[in-house]
Amino acid sequence: MAKKTPALNTSSTADIAFLLLCYxxxxxxxxxxxxxxxxxxxxxxxNQQVQDQKVNRRNIIVVKINSADRLLAGSEPxxxxxxxxxxxxxxTNPTDDxxxxxxxxxxxxxxxxxxxxxxxxxxxxxxxxxxxxYMEVQNELVKAVNELRDEFSSRAYGKPFNSLxxxxxxxxxxxxxQNISEAEPKDVGKK
Length: 191
Fold this sequence. Notes:
alpha/beta, 5-stranded mixed β-sheet, two-stranded antiparallel sheet
């Protein structure tokens, strides 16, 4: 007579596995750190007349990303790791270089007079640019502005920007504006 092998009752094991899966799905949080934190400007009034704004050429730095994810800042090839420092130098113009942005002394309510840079960062990319390269460049541009804001708030208030109350944060944002202009992506390979 053949010997019977003992069997495990696995019907409840599937139920337990399903319950554990449901538990972990409901209690786990998903990271949502990707993407851009930007507030778009409000839609203009339909009756508002469009005015062409003339921007002095020295006040603009054009940052281009091609379809091979190569980066140009101005007319020079540059690595992404060097972009933040280049943008900080461009916006602050510490040596008052006539080729870098001019500064306009403005009276900031609650602070006083301060020379505000008229610098604008123009970001242009190709349709073939990878999302990863685009996000890396965006992050470096925002990081440069955030570091300048931290430096200003540390000098003016002795605290980093994020530790300030809303009123002082608005003063810092006025003193160190984030002027990033994005052009529509282009197909460089097509005519």
